[in-house]
Design goal:
Elements (H helix, E strand, L loop, with lengths): L6 H7 L16 E4 L7 H13 L3 E5 L1 E2 L5 E2 L4 H8 L3 H11 L6 E8 L2 E8 L27 E4 L2 E4 L2 H29 L6 E3 L4 E3 L6 E4 H6 L23 E4 L12 H4 L4 H11 L5 H10 L9 E3 L4 H10 L8 E3 L2 H13 L1
Parallel strand pairs: 1-2, 11-12
Antiparallel strand pairs: 2-6, 3-4, 5-6, 7-8, 9-10, 13-14
Helix pairs in contact: 8-11
Length: 347
């Protein structure tokens, strides 16, 4: 069993109160289904894509969610169907429907004499988000060509502009950092000593007897030729190098400008609550704080940022992951829409 799917994790997720009702609600990382059947695969895959585009999450079968969250367990038939799932076939089906690979795992658990089944879906890598549906599929075309699904609090739906914009901006930042990283490596070695390795063409473009700068991760992937064992016919494609191969394991840190935090996160907690109430006066302040807590909004840079008062508070958080008492959070304007959407989904 993995660290994501094991008895300890499932027992915690399915913890119940004295009246038999589950403590946990459905959230951006948790979805309950009463039963499992092959006919519902397209619906489950919609959740797969939504979890993958957000933070990842659990899809657990054997839970009755209406009118109250109860542990009912799976029937023998539903459990048998789940156990017959062929991971290779399912992954192939998912890859045919969506724009990129979705990483997942599954298992069956017995808790207090009842059987439950669970999927865990991993968050997609930043360089491939967003996961996009490529074709219509499922009953009533529940999956539609061109749609992007996202997991909001307790509900899977088409992505809204705020979350899509955040994914696009993070992806741009990711590739920008890769370019900066590459330029720093070339700068450290010197352009006169660097060469370009094209792994597709198997070519190195540079003058003779120059140093080849190769990233440490790439060094482990390349099939290097051992001295005296070169063969053009035997084995997989290889590279024959003349000169020195120099792995790079350190990158010089260049000075970066601090982002104007208040420009990106203009709302205090009080201002956030006031904005939400202006837009929807049915939402009470206690509901706002509950939604923030249940959906870990404070720790999600898409919506919020800890506004540390000094360097020691920031260093403590960076080292231990714990936030000092009294550290406030500031919020993006799009957090208003996000919390309102979660509240509407809960009704």
């Amino acid at each position: 069993m993995s660290d994501k799917l094991n008895m300890e994790v499932i027992t915690d997720l399915l913890k119940v109160k004295n009246d038999g009702v589950l403590y946990r609600r459905e959230s951006q990382t948790l979805e309950f289904k009463e039963s499992f059947n092959f006919a519902g695969l397209a619906d489950y895959f919609r959740d797969f894509a939504a979890f993958s585009n957000n933070k990842g999450g659990y899809l657990i079968f054997g839970i009755k969610d209406r009118p109250k969250r109860e542990l009912v367990g799976l029937s023998t038939s539903a459990k048998d169907q789940f156990e017959k799932l062929d991971p290779e076939m399912i992954s192939g089906y998912i890859n045919d429907i969506f724009s990129c690979c979705i990483e997942w795992e599954h298992d069956v658990f017995n808790l207090n004499g009842k059987d439950y089944a669970a999927f865990y879906v991993y968050e997609a890598d930043m360089n491939i988000k967003p996961v996009i549906c490529k074709k219509d599929e499922g009953k009533d075309n529940i999956l539609k060509n061109g749609e992007i699904y996202y997991r909001y609090g307790g509900r899977t739906q088409k992505i809204q502009h705020g979350e899509l914009e955040a994914i696009i901006n993070r992806r741009i930042d990711y590739f920008n950092k890769q370019w900066i990283d590459l330029v720093q490596k070339i700068g450290k070695s010197g352009p006169q000593n660097a060469a370009i390795l094209d792994t597709e063409k198997g070519a190195i473009t540079k003058g003779e007897n120059q140093i080849l700068v190769v990233d440490e991760k790439l060094v482990r992937k390349i099939k290097w030729i051992k001295e005296g064992e070169f063969s053009e016919k035997k084995g997989t494609k290889t590279l024959k190098l003349i000169g020195e191969v120099q792995p790079v394991d350190a990158i010089e840190v260049v000075r970066t400008e601090k982002v104007n935090r208040l420009k990106e996160y203009p709302l205090s907690a009080k201002e956030l609550a006031n904005e939400i109430k202006k837009r929807n006066n049915k939402i009470g302040q206690n509901d706002i704080w509950r939604i923030i807590k249940e959906n870990n909004i404070k720790s999600d840079l898409t919506y919020a940022l800890y506004n540390f008062r000094n360097k020691s508070q920031e260093e403590e958080y960076s080292t231990s992951g714990k936030v000092s008492n009294g550290v406030p959070s500031i919020y993006k304007q799009t957090t208003v829409d996000y919390i309102i959407q979660i509240y509407i989904n809960e009704i």
